[in-house]
Amino acid sequence: MNKNESISYTEMQKFFAREIKEVGGRPITSKNLELSLLPIHARENLSAPEMPWYTEVNDIYMEFRRSPFWMVAGYVFLGFMLSLLSISILSIVAFSFYEMGFNSDLLFLYLLAFVLGCFILPGAAKIAFFTPHYLPIRFNRKTQKIYVSDLIIEGNVFFGKIKLTFHEYDWKDVEGWEVSRHFSKSMPYNGLHLVVNRENDINALRQTRVYTTRAPWSAQEMARQKNYIPQIWLYCHNYMAYETVSGAKNKPQPFIFLRNNWLFKWPKEMDKRSRSSKILSE
C-alpha cells in the first residue's frame, strides 16, 4: 500500500463529499470535512476493539458487519413508526367501513389513509423490514483480497431505488481514512472509510464505509467511539499481515433494531472465492 501522494487534500475532500450524504440526504460541503490518512504500520499485541463485532474469524478470513449511514440517522426506527402508524390508520378505516359503511364525517381520515397506504407505507416498510441494514465485509488474508457488500441509493432513502452491490478489491490498494464532520452538536459524523486507490487517479477511487460513530451521550462516549477508528483499522491491518491479533473468536452482539440479516446472501461465486485459501480463476 502506498500513500496517496498525487491526489491533493482538497481533491480527497471533494471525493468524500460526493460519496457521503449528510443526515437527511442533502449534499455536504467538501470544505467542512476533516480527513486523516491512517498509518499502515502494524502493532504487536493489539487488543481487539469493541467494534466491530465478529460474524466469523478464522485463519483464512475475517468477516464483520457494519451499518449504513441511515442507521445513525434513525431512518430505520422512523420507517418502523411510520409503518405502524399507517397500518393502524388503515385498520381503523377498514373496520369503520365494515361496521358503518361510508361516512362523510370521516372523509379526512379516508384521505389520510389513502395517502399513508399509497405513498408512505411502501417506502417506510421497505426501509424498515425489507432492506438488509448490517452488511458484511470480508478480509481474506490468504489471497490478500477484501470482499465488500454495499447498498446504493438512487434518490431518497424512503422513495428511491435501493440496490445491493458486491465488489472484490486487492488489499494492497486499500487505504484507511478517518472522516469527520459535525452537522450539529448532537449529530457529529466520524467514520472509518476504506479507499481503493489503484492508480493515484481521483476519478478511479472507490470507497466503502467500515465504521461510523453514533450520536454521543457525552464527550467521554464520543471519545470512546472515535478511538475505535484507528483500532479497527490497525486490527484489520494486523490480521491481513499475519501479525498478532487478540480475541479471534465470535463476540456477543448487542441488540440491534431490525438488522434484517435474513435478507442478505453473498453471491455463490463470490462466497466461494472469499472463503478460499487460494486465488480462484474467474
Labels describing this entry:
282 residues, alpha+beta, 2 domains, five-stranded antiparallel β-sheet, four-stranded antiparallel β-sheet, 23% strand, DUF6708 domain-containing protein, DUF6708
Describe it for me?
- The chain has 282 residues and is α+β, with helices and mostly antiparallel strands.
- It folds into two domains: 9-68 and 135-274, no CATH class; 76-129, no CATH class.
- It has helices spanning 9-19, 69-73, 75-100, 107-129, 219-240, 268-275; strands at residues 34-37, 54-57, 61-66, 135-140, 145-154, 161-170, 174-182, 188-196, 206-212.
- A five-stranded antiparallel beta sheet has the order 2-3-4-5-6, with helices on both faces. The chain has a four-stranded antiparallel beta sheet with strand order 1-7-8-9, sandwiched between helices.
- The relative contact order is 0.20.
Tell me the layout of helices and strands.
Blueprint: H1 9-19, E1 34-37, E2 54-57, E3 61-66, H2 69-73, H3 75-100, H4 107-129, E4 135-140, E5 145-154, E6 161-170, E7 174-182, E8 188-196, E9 206-212, H5 219-240, H6 268-275
Antiparallel strand pairs: 1-7, 2-3, 3-4, 4-5, 5-6, 7-8, 8-9
Pfam families: DUF6708
InterPro entries: DUF6708
Domain DUF6708: 124-245
